[in-house]
Amino acid sequence: MESNENYVMPRIGEKAPSFKAVTTQGDINYPADYEGKWSILFSHPADFTPVCTSEFMTFASMDKEFQALNCQLVGLSVDGLYSHIAWLRTIKEKIEYKGMKNVEVNFPLIEDITMEVAKKYGMIQPGESNTKAVRAVFFVDPKGIIRTIIYYPLSLGRNFDELKRVLIGLQTADNFSVALPADWRPGDDVIVPTAGSCGVAKERMDGKAEGVTCYDWFFCTKKLDKDTVEAALGK
Asked: Which residues are catalytic?
């Protein structure tokens, strides 16, 4: 079996590594099948484990929210297809958690028993486990470019409110050519990119740039109301 050393870790701003795989929803060709859509490719350590079960129930319960943002969820573990199917059936028929029950997972879950995809995406972290994928999350834009990467250890479940916030933030930054400050939520002020010329910077500092508030030459904000942000999401 090949080691992780044969793979270059994916990086933000690069094309998402391509692969074909069998999933619980049929064969996929990633990321080509999702051209024109955002996608979140995420890994979990193993089927029939408690933390992963809580995560899949949460993702499945939020699936329509992500779809409304033009985003497809794609899961992966190094288990086989029949294990995936049996686990998802068990979740639907037997598990109740935080008010969630009868939860059906309709997004694809990739079979990766050879660990080929997991290794391509740096999901196997030997310091954590040689045989299980960590909880990796890749946000891939409609052009197939990796925009955000988040890794969690085996023992820590993901914050799904934050995952949705990241997706909304990425789309907002793209739609309005702005940057977003710490803890930003739709309706909060946004960061205006640094002025490209001394004249523009002076206008900002003098308070002549309409709708822009500057605290210093490098730190300027403006209002961007929640309705405007939300109207542009998923585009």
From this structure: 52
